[in-house]
Amino acid sequence: MLQAAHERSGESVRFLGVNARDDRQSALALLADLRVSYPQAVDADGRLVGMLDSPGLPVTLVLDRRGAVAWRHVGEVRMDDLDRAVRSTTG
């Protein structure tokens, strides 16, 4: 779903996936299987997740143009909710 949103948004929205506390090779294999093309980062020690004060994973964030969190969702996200959150921050 995130890959589809990434493809629809073109250059107007940037996506970054963060793999937290998973085996790097397994994560890369899954991303390849899913044909995810947006950039990925690794949070091997879970430091970023801790900084986000998230009660669990997955967590989806939409940042505004200044880099502030404009929308946050913990758990599986629905496409219409993500689209609405992105539209609200991109104008």
How are the SSEs placed, and which strands pair?
Layout: H1 2-9, E1 17-20, H2 24-34, E2 40-43, H3 47-51, E3 59-63, E4 69-74, H4 79-90
Parallel strand pairs: 1-2
Antiparallel strand pairs: 3-4
Question: What's the gist of this structure?
Answer:
This protein has 91 residues and is an alpha+beta fold. The protein contains four helices and four strands. Strand 1, helix 2 and strand 2 form a beta-alpha-beta unit.
What does this protein structure show overall?
It contains 4 helices and 4 strands. The protein has 91 residues and is α+β, with helices and mostly antiparallel strands. The protein has a single domain, classed as Glutaredoxin. The strands form 2 sheets. It has a two-stranded parallel ribbon with strand order 1-2. Strand 3 and strand 4 form a beta hairpin. The longest helix is centred in the last third of the chain and has 12 residues.
List descriptors.
Glutaredoxin, single chain, two-stranded parallel sheet, two-stranded antiparallel ribbon, alpha+beta, 91 residues
Q: Give, in spatial order, the strands making up the sheet with the most strands.
A: 1-2
The helix tally amounts to 4
Helix content: 25-40%
Oligomeric state of the chains in view: single chain
Q: What fold name stands as the CATH topology?
A: Glutaredoxin
Based on CA inertia axes, which overall geometry fits?
globular
Name the CATH architecture: 3-Layer(aba) Sandwich
- What value does the average pLDDT take? 88
Radius of gyration: 13 Å
Taking the alpha carbons of the first and last residues, their distance comes to 22 Å
Write the CATH homologous superfamily: Glutaredoxin
Strand content: 15-25%
